[in-house]
Write a structure and sequence with these properties.
The complex is a heterodimer. By secondary structure, chain A is mostly helical. Chain A is built from 13 helices and 2 strands, in the order ααββααααααααααα. The two termini of chain A are 52 Å apart. The model of chain A has no long low-confidence stretch (mean pLDDT 86). Chain B folds into 2 domains: 135 residues, Periplasmic binding protein-like II (D-Maltodextrin-Binding Protein, domain 2), CATH 3.40.190; 116 residues, Periplasmic binding protein-like II (D-Maltodextrin-Binding Protein, domain 2, 3-Layer(aba) Sandwich). In chain B, 35% of the residues lie in helices and 21% in strands. The chains are: A mainly alpha, B alpha/beta. Chains A and B meet through α5 of A and α3, α4, α6, β8 and α7 of B.
């Protein structure tokens, strides 16, 4: 059992060489792997540009960017992509409206309100949302959500208004009422102060409840003709962007550090003041980066929009009407590829690459912006 | 039992790998189910034949035949001039085999009281000249038009048989498959759509067109106006007796007719 334990501590020459060669091979392999993924980006840019340029040579820039008529299979074909750009913008905006307030609130709750133990469970659960395949989201949007919107669209819109505006208004009433009373404090004395506070909160609270009732009655009367529309896709895309936004901005809030929070409390701030005036301002660039990453997820998403946006190449009327079907760049590329024959060298093939290039350029810029913002935030926090 | 025999036969044949024949099929999602049924049928009887079927659209099928990546291109439309020309330039001679017929029923929600439209009315609905169901005898409801995506053979047939060069209204919705059309129509009371005859079931209502209801008989007799043949294209006529030849003639047999009927299409034969 004891065997030969008297092994020399100095490596033999052969072993030394063997180890050095092994180390070279290992390092070389890692370098190769890294450069492969870096070169892939350049190759993608090159090949997309190579097939996008012929489109502009064939059809020029004006129709593509300025015309609203998208009839790629017509005779003659028309390649006006303006409405498709607007569609992409609209659902992205919608996804931001859904995901950003929800995501940041959830991140604040995770980092500053929930006890550590619960946070350790909740955060991974939210992150699982990112692992759900997009086709499953798309299927849900098409088969469950779209019919639901058609059957009881008004009720859903009204409930949504209560759910979203309710807490916001409540917060505004509390904070606004407080501020108002603060200003009045000097002028009003004694028992009148109690009366003043009751009347201020009463008027503000009643006002916002009346507003909500009025709004929800207006919304409740709306009938949604077709459930596959910009609203449906915006909500689903917002949910898909949530895990990114929650996770990254929670990290940013955490990175603001314990010292900052303790310092703020030591100065006599309440928890709300600490969060709103110290923690969030300190991590604003990290939160911004989180938002940009989430938005990029929404812009690049294809399957959900292809299944549930309606794919109608038309600017809604008026442009912000999210209850009408829209068409996005990604869905157009995916949907039109089947007939876009490169062998016959058609503009119909190259136009898809022109779109892909626009998407790529845009997400490249966004990525760059988020990179810069994160860098700035690191510098600010001295890390 | 057949399966087991097939399995045993395959195992026995693995030794003689040279005897393996591979047939690659690609193309229309409409014709795909027929190709799959034929493939199962062939492989059960001839385990040495290996058949793979993909469904990536008629255009991709033609592309595959042109590039030599498939032996049979399933297409729900006939080849276009440009595709023929591209094939001819490459020395490929596309030969069409009409394996079945398909009618495109016009589908509406079961609750829709409308029973009958003319091709002209359908065209006007898709052009955007008729926008409310009450204009064609239905309830006062805005019509939601649903179409297959522009890169499907189904769309091209609809465009050719119904639209006649007219451009579909801008707010028409597009979906990626016949199944998606059915699911959109069965859940949307104001919807109108079209899909292959094989996709009609009780959850949607197929309208009469020009007074003719879509069925196997009316499609075969040419009475139903929105109908089309379904093709398999090969490069030249396959050598007589070869596995490829046997494959593209299955639809002429009694078993083939039964399979085509089972999938919901109209056979070209009448045993």
């Amino acid at each position: 059992m004891t065997g030969n334990t008297s092994k020399s501590l100095v490596m033999s020459d052969a072993a030394s060489i063997r180890q050095r060669i092994g180390s070279w091979i290992g390092q070389g392999f890692l370098l190769l792997a890294t450069s492969l993924s870096a070169f892939a980006v350049f190759f993608i840019f090159y090949f997309i540009l190579k097939d996008a340029i012929p489109f502009f040579q064939l059809e020029g820039f004006k129709e593509f960017f300025a015309s609203k008529r998208w009839y790629p299979s017509g005779h003659p074909a028309e390649f006006g992509a303006l409405s498709i750009f607007v569609g992409t913008g609209l659902v992205t905006l919608g996804a931001i409206v859904v995901a950003v307030p929800l995501g940041i609130s959830a991140a604040v709750c995770l980092s500053d309100l929930l006890p550590f133990g619960i946070r350790q469970i909740v955060k991974p659960v939210i992150e699982i949302l990112a692992a759900i395949p997009s086709v499953a989201f798309g299927f849900f949007a098409l088969v469950v959500f779209a019919p639901l919107l058609q059957r009881s669209g008004g009720a859903i819109l009204a409930t949504g208004a209560w759910l979203v505006l309710g807490p916001i208004l409540a917060l505004l009433v509390v904070v606004g009422g407080d501020l108002l009373l603060e200003k009045m404090r000097n002028r009003i004395q004694g028992k009148k102060r109690y009366l003043a506070s009751v009347s201020v909160f009463g008027v503000l609270g009643l006002g916002s409840i009346l507003f909500l009732v009025f709004l929800s009655r207006r919304l409740g009367g709306i009938e949604i003709n077709s459930g596959t529309n910009a609203l449906n896709v915006s909500i689903i895309l917002g949910i898909m962007a949530l895990p990114t936004i929650v996770s990254v901005s929670e990290d940013a809030l955490q990175a603001a550090g314990r010292e900052l929070r303790e310092g703020s409390y030591a100065l006599g701030s309440t928890r709300a003041e600490t969060i709103l005036k110290a923690v969030i301002p300190a991590s604003v660039s990290g939160i911004l980066a989180a938002v940009i990453l989430g938005v990029m997820r929404a812009i690049g998403e294809t399957m959900v929009v292809w299944m549930a946006s309606g794919n109608a190449a038309r600017i809604p009327d008026p442009w912000y009407n999210v209850l009408q079907p829209i068409r996005t760049l990604t869905a157009t590329i995916a949907g039109d590829m089947g007939e876009a024959d490169h062998v016959t060298g058609s503009a119909r093939y190259h136009v898809l690459f022109a779109m892909a290039f626009c998407l790529l350029a845009f997400s490249f810029l966004m990525n760059l912006a988020s990179e810069l913002i994160v860098k700035r935030s690191r510098k600010k926090l001295g890390k | 039992m057949k399966r087991i025999i097939a399995l045993v036969a395959t195992t026995a044949l693995v030794g003689v790998a040279s005897a393996q024949t591979k047939i690659v099929i690609d193309g229309s999602t409409t014709v795909g189910p027929i190709a799959k049924a034929f493939a199962e049928y062939t492989m059960a009887a001839h385990p040495e034949v290996n058949i793979s079927v993909s469904e990536s659209g008629s255009g991709n099928g033609a592309k595959g035949l042109l590039n030599g990546t498939c032996d049979i291109a399933d297409m729900s439309r006939s080849m276009k001039d440009t595709e023929f020309k591209a094939c001819a330039d490459k020395g490929i001679q596309p030969v069409a085999h009409v394996v079945a017929l398909d009618g495109l029923p016009i589908l509406v929600h079961p609750s829709n009281p409308v029973k009958d439209l003319t091709v002209e009315q359908v065209r006007k609905i898709y052009l955007g000249e008729i926008t409310n169901w009450k204009e064609v005898g239905g309830p006062d409801q805005k019509i939601v038009t649903i179409s297959r995506d522009t890169s499907s053979g189904t769309y091209e047939t609809f465009e050719e048989k119904v639209m006649e060069k007219g451009k579909i209204r801008e707010d028409c919705e597009y979906v990626g498959s016949n199944g998606a059309i059915r699911s959109r129509v069965q859940t949307t009371p104001a919807a109108i759509g079209y899909a292959g005859l094989g996709f009609v079931d009780k959850t949607v209502k197929a309208l009469k067109v020009n007074g003719i209801s879509p069925s196997a008989e009316t499609v075969q007799s040419g009475q139903y106006p929105i109908a089309r043949p379904l093709f398999m294209y090969t490069n030249g006529y396959p050598a007589l007796g070869s596995p490829l030849y046997q494959f593209v003639t299955i639809h002429l047999s009694e078993d083939g007719q039964e399979m085509v009927e089972d999938i919901g299409f109209v056979p070209v034969t009448a045993y």
